[in-house]
Amino acid sequence: MTGPRFQVHAMQPLFLTVEGIGPFQEEPFQLDFTDARDEPCNLYVLVSENGRGKTNLLDLMACLMGLLPGGEREKLGFEDLDTGNGRAQWDLLVELEREGKTERFVLSLAAGFGDPWSLADWGTARLATYGASKRVRLGYRRHDSSRLELVGMNDERVSDLVAAVRAGRDSPTDGFEENSPTLPTLLYFDPYRDIPLISTGIRGINEPLNWGYRPVHRFSREGESWHDSLDNLLVWLKWLDDERFDRAVEIINQRVFTGSAKFLKGVRKQPPEAIINNGGYIHRLDRLSSGEKSLVQLYLRFGVHMTRNTILLVDEMDVHLHPKWQYRTMRLFKQLARDNPGLTIIASHHSLELIEAFSFETPQEGLRKGGHIIQEGLA
User: Fold this and answer.
1) Residues 250-278 pLDDT 10s
2) Of 144, 94, 85, 87, nearest to 118 (Cα)?
């Protein structure tokens, strides 16, 4: 994907500032992704009741990460940025090695009407707080005519990063939660996670849809066709025969089925599909409970698509989960953040149990925790 003289050593969120987006219309609204010591958080929770704008903010982060390939565009794919006066700026701390030199800087991904980079300034003192030498920009300014103007490509750091992201597109990863590529990626899981019955497509050993690297992968309800199903993904991993399949099965059984009579047994040849052993009864993935399907999808997709610099967004992490599973999922997220230095987890929920499980004020080794409650009303 990238040569040894070009490596991304870090890409960590610092601040997201929005104006004219969803419910955030009256004045600029900001999320601070740093902890009490001004270090970028590796575990961040966004808490609110439904309808307060948390999904808007997660959608927006995915949209802004999607600006990394640059290029000419007619639309950004986010309504409040494509029309009206909506603006957004996402500041990330980047450590980049180019041609033998390593530099830390703030990358402001921004888009919207007028000058979206004016939402948050970066002076010398503020940059020094995060050990950054410079602030660079990448994104799109929308003019009165609706024309989108690409901004930032005159900086070599930005142009090199954009070129690397473009060149790396569709390059296959090489592990399961042990991938070596360093290009940044954002994995976004919306609240509608599900595994339906496969109803279309010819079953076989096929490279899964969107198998390779992308700066953004979005996951919702899995497709009903063979080509974009989790069954095809597992059959493909089995066919690769490079230990990824065994690791995937082990992780799913540890994280999802510990303490139950169920386990992911593997895949069968006819018909080709993944199979679950439920106390001796064999069935398909789509016969799992809603909570089990949500977690199987999350951990499989995460393991396959993560890189060494991954931002994991999970909207409504508590959906379909019993309080006991909510606690377990929070524990697992904490362990993932500890085990993967380049991983940032940003999760939303509206669960009182998860607020307690997060234990915001309690220091925990290997974790840099942060969070925000939108319009407090959870009590």
Assistant:
1) 999 999 999 999 999 999 999 999 999 99
2) 87
What are the E-state strand segments in the chain?
Answer: 6-19, 29-32, 43-47, 87-98, 101-113, 135-142, 148-151, 184-194, 216-221, 262-269, 272-278, 281-283, 309-314, 343-349, 369-373
Distances (CA, A) of 338 to 255, 331, 344, 368: 16, 11, 10, 9
Whole-number Å distance between alpha carbons of 40 and 130: 9
Instruction: Please tell me the distance from the alpha carbon of residue 110 to that of residue 105, in angstroms, as a whole number.
Output: 16
Element spanning 209, H or E: none
Look at 154-163, 205-214, 351-360 and tell me which has the smallest mean pLDDT: 351-360
Report whether 214 contacts 146 (CB < 8 A).
no
* CA–CA dist 292, 301 (Å, integer): 14
3-state secondary structure (DSSP) of residue 7: strand
Sign of the CA dihedral running 242, 218, 302, 111: positive
From CA 46, how far away is CA 175, in angstroms rounded?
30
pLDDT digits (tens, 9 = 90+) for 58-87: 999 999 999 999 999 999 999 999 998 999
Backbone region of residue 300 per phi and psi (left: phi > 0; alpha: psi in -120 to 50; beta: other values): alpha
Residue with tokens 């929308």: 142
What is the SS3 assignment for 238? helix
241-269 in b/e burial notation, b at 16+ Cβ within 10 A? eeebbebbbebbeebbbeeeebbbeebee
The tens digit of pLDDT for each residue in 291-336 reads 999 999 999 999 999 999 999 999 999 998 988 899 999 999 999 9
Give the 3-state secondary structure of residue 103: strand
Q: Are strands 135-142 and 148-151 parallel, antiparallel or unpaired?
A: antiparallel
Coil vs helix vs strand at 170? coil
